[in-house]
Amino acid sequence: MTDTQAPGSGLHSPGSGPGGLAADIRRGTHPLSRFGDTLVGIVVKLALLSFVNGAAIYMIVRMVTLGAPWWGLALTAAATLVLNVVYLGKGALPLKYLVPGTLFLLMFQVFPFAYTFYIAFTNYGMGQILTQEQAIERIERVSIRPLPDAPRFDAVPFADGDDLALLLTSADGEVFLGHPADGLIPVDELDVETVDDRIVAADGYERLSLGAAQDRIDAFTDLRIPIDEGEIELVSLTSATLREQTRIWDPETETLVDRLTGDVYAPSDRGRLVNVDDPADRLSPGWRVVVGTENFVRAFTTDAIRGPFLRVVVWTYLFALLSTVATFTLGLLLAITLNDPRVRGRRFIRLAMIVPYALPTFMTALIWRGMMNRRFGVINELLGAQIPWLNDPTMARVSVVLVNLWFGFPYMFLLCSAALQSIPDDLYEAASVDGASGWGRFRRITLPLLLVAMAPVLIATFAFNFNNFNIIYLLTGGNPPIAGAATPVGHTDILISYTFRIAFETGAGQDFGLGATVAIMTFLMVAVIAAVSFRWVAPLEEVNR
Fold this sequence. Notes:
The chain is an alpha+beta fold. It is built from 20 helices and 16 strands.
């Protein structure tokens, strides 16, 4: 056997050692494996590692600044260390390809799924987004208010460039320089400059005229001077008042006390501060806590959630099935028709068929929405009717399936055309000789051989339509709404759009815990469908044997 054998024949190519390309890379004799040892390779490697390390350092600093959890910092540092060890060390060529892919897999697939799974077991949602410390801090901050007998101060605006301050004089004659970051500082402790017993400069700050201060009135109005009792704010450019904190957290007793009413609030296991004497009195916002399987229980036991949820599940399966069958059937019929050489202009017709597939979905879906408008849509104008395409529950579902058919049939048409052309003509000729009819040839030759190639595509199409968010969101938005539901849900919502509306729609929505629960159940449904479908498809492989 000579060295002129074709690549891919299982033998080595010219110049290769025993074992071919893979063995050359492992031994380090192939140019690809030696690139990292060249000057250019070393420079490129160091440049990329410098970029990665710089990005990692920036991320770690930002994470520390934002108070990210320790495990996030540890994972970021560990991933950066692994990349440096792999790419700066010699050998271990396979790891240089496996490590980046594995890290991206963990970042963009494993972590989002794990985090969604975690959220499904929490009460994360509107009003309970913060941590306990953040929630208590927010409650304390909003409790700062001016009281009727609050102390007053004479105020004079001062500024050091964009840095603002106030010269404050209390009722007993004490003078302070008030700064948002430093609080009240007695002027006796500062380097001041006076003119005619009037302070015109203090510690780098200069006195502003009322006209100059008026030009910056918004900034001075937003200015807050923190003190132990609360904070000082301007009432006018010449006076200020103390806004006192009426609710104070006591870390020793782990309770929050309202100074005005005397009410005491304690944390509950539901992530709220609850009045110890009146459990119905709860403060907002709350914080995230783990609630176990409560969201799953709510989905199946709360009538206002269970009923609409089950309707959405049934419609999701029906929509995916109808869309898949309809697009495959229409695409196959068109492919069989245009596969006949007697049809004239096949090339032009095939090109026209691809147009719906080539156009952006977000644009054409909105065009269809306008065309189906009950009062002004072109479809009703042509028909001379007032058909509620998008307003009636049944017609809205029919409209969604029809528009999705328009989007999906070109894809099926292209694949069916390619699959039909791969079927040998000899099979049809032999069937004709045996007296098989056109339907018989289709049923016994075309369809079985076509399903061998198309079955995985049909499974993927079903899974895609099961999560076809774009067509639902852009065409109907899930509407018309289902009356009496405890969550935002409509008659055309499928599971993915229902999840989106629960998690992100304002009003009754923004329940991330319940949304994550529906997302987990959707994933499990798709996984089961895929597993069963591939077991069903396996016998079709026998057709080719």
